[in-house]
Amino acid sequence: MTLDRIELSLLYLPYVHFFETSLQREEGRTFIIVKALGDGLTGYGEVVASEMPYYSYETTTTAWLVLKEFFVPLVFDRGIDRPEMFVEEARRFRGHPMARAGLELALWDLEAKRAGRPLRKIYGGVRERIPVGVSLGIENTVGDLLDRVDSFLREGYLRIKIKIKPGWDAGVIREVRRRFPEIDLQADANGAYTLQDAAALRALDEFGLTMLEQPFPPYDLWDHSRLQREIRTPICLDESIISEVTARQAAEMGSCRIVNIKVGRVGGMVEARRIHDTCERADVPVWCGGMLESGIGRAHNLHIASLPNFTMPGDLSASKRYYAEDLIEPAIELETDGTVRVPEGPGIGVNPVESRIEKATLKREVLKP
Ligand code: OSB
Ligand code: MG
Q1: Fold topology of 121-341
Q2: For an engineered disulfide with 197, which of 95, 193, 271, 328 has Cβ 3.0 to 4.6 Å away?
């Protein structure tokens, strides 16, 4: 098979409700959809970089540039038509994990569509339904947050994740815990603290959190290991885990007891699986993180989260938690048991609606061999 062309589209979708972390408040998301076309089939991938370099140094602008200038020409020059070949060849380039993951995912979707099988089967996933939780941003008032926790619990979400930052932490978690004593609750700091704040983080121990996600900045495995020795709450690393090597080192150092896997952050599915396998051997459970993806990225995440060591609920909420109108049909929905079904059709198993993609598109570029 040969690739006829690769298309990049820059899209903007407004959120149904703003999303605020320790890093920023956003009203919507700018992101890139990658399409790989060949043999009359189209594979879709999503690049999860944001417009601004808060969560990661990558942005939609850098991802667009490296895809257009380096990764896509590599695909054409080497005659790459399979995802694993792409991963091998693209090792010659450093960094830009979100850009490379978006292209790799488009090739995985195309590969699975050629085989006429759902991606889950190609990956060897073992789950047909993924238990899911919801990630709730910082609100204007604690009352607003409590109302949102209540409404998502009523919808059936299995666990609640609360974004924290200095000044919006133990006091807020105390209120949530008082109102909802039994729920599976966790907090995510997106790197807003340092070792000097250990007392504020130790104060979270009394609330029985399932985990504390990424208390310190990304490039800081050692300080996380020091903090983990001082607190009872299991630390989960997100931003820090950028490869199988960092996952192994974090496990060896005791920097965390749980790992959040995001395929974009780690540079693709091949690396995500290596992290998954290494964590399994180290007895470190993993769960699938999210980047407020459209239905295209979300469907990819569901297939990935079907692997065996994804034993904790993922940030894989239903389409309507994020967007009034998702890019796909059918929309991703929450089942009554708090799970989301892995789509059954070939590839990602959902149908991107071209007219909706077009409506959300800010710019588009067609690249050919
Ligand atoms: O830290 O997990 C994070 C969203 C954007 C950037 C970073 C994070 C998040 C979320 C939302 O927590 C997860 C989701 O529901 O997609
Ligand atoms: Mg996180």
Answers
A1: TIM Barrel (3.20.20)
A2: 193
